[in-house]
Write a structure and sequence with these properties.
Layout: E1 8-10, E2 19-21, E3 27-29, E4 36-38, H1 41-44, H2 51-61, H3 68-91, H4 98-108
Helix pairs in contact: 3-4
Length: 119
């Protein structure tokens, strides 16, 4: 496991629309409402399972290798959180619009045995 001395400021969703590029080409993280003090693996899980990306991070941050058990923990935590949000959405009164159809397809990716499901 990890101790709190290994923790740092994490963003929570450091990819997609939260990463913007300015006129000089520099990248910036925006939308910090999910920021927390946590192990770095909380954000590193967004790099996927690419050893190359994790090694590059390690070189830049001059840090020890990412811990596989914590990467798995955060993958599972994210899948559980997303599943809970989708279930709340489906249980509430709703219409079968394009957004709901997309939500259903996204929800299915978190079910065991589905493509993209967490193991």
């Amino acid at each position: 496991m990890t101790s709190s001395t290994d923790w740092c400021l994490t963003h929570g969703e450091p990819s997609g629309g939260n990463l913007v590029q300015d006129q000089t080409g520099a990248y910036h993280l925006v939308d910090w409402e999910s920021a927390r003090i946590a192990p770095p693996e909380r954000d590193l899980v967004d790099l996927g399972s690419s050893d190359k990306a994790l090694d590059h991070y390690r070189q830049l941050a001059q840090s020890p290798p990412a811990r596989a058990d914590l990467l798995r923990l955060y993958r599972l935590w994210y899948a559980l959180a997303e599943t809970a949000v989708y279930l709340l959405q489906f249980r509430a009164s709703h219409t079968a619009d394009d957004n709901m159809v997309e939500s259903w397809q996204n929800f299915l990716t978190f079910l065991p045995g589905r493509q993209g499901s967490v193991s």
